[in-house]
Amino acid sequence: MMTKKTLMALSALSIAAAFALAQEKNAPAKAEIDALLSAWHEAAATADAKTYFGSMAPGAVFLGTDVTERWTKEEFEAWAAPSFRKASAWVFRAVRRSISVSADGNTAWFDEDLDSESYWPCRGSGALERIGGAWKIRLYNLAFTIPNDAVPEIRPAVLKAFAKPEKERP
Question: What is the CATH code for 4-168?
Fold first, then answer.
C-alpha cells in the first residue's frame, strides 16, 4: 500500500516528466523561432525590408522605445522605409533569448537581451503565431534597459522630455 508521501512524490515525478516531454516536443518550434528572430534582426542590419517585414504577421504591432512608438506592421513599414533604403536600417543582435511555446504549438512568446550599435544593451520581447505552417511575429516590444543605479541620474532628463509638448520632442 502506498503512503500519501509516496503518492505525492509519484505525482511530482509525473508532472516533471510531462513538463520535460512538452519541452522536448517544443524543441523544433523553438529552433524555428530562434532562427526566425535571428534572421529578422539580420534583415534589419542588412536593410532587407522584404525579409524583415515578411517575418511579421499582417496587423502585427511593433512597440518602439519612445512612448509614442506603437505601430501596426503597415504603419511601421511606412515609417521605417527611409532606413531600409540605406545599407543598414539598424543593428540589434540577441545575446540571450528565452522562448516558450503554447501547449497547442500555435502560439509562442519570447524575451531577448540585445546588443545595440546605436544605444546600449536593450531588451526585446514579443509574441508569435504559427500561420499557414510558418511562424510570424505578432508583437514586438523593443525596450531600453536602464540600470537601477542610473535612474536617479536619468530620471530628471526623462521627466524634462515628457514635460515638453509631444510636437516639440525629437
Answer: 3.10.450.50
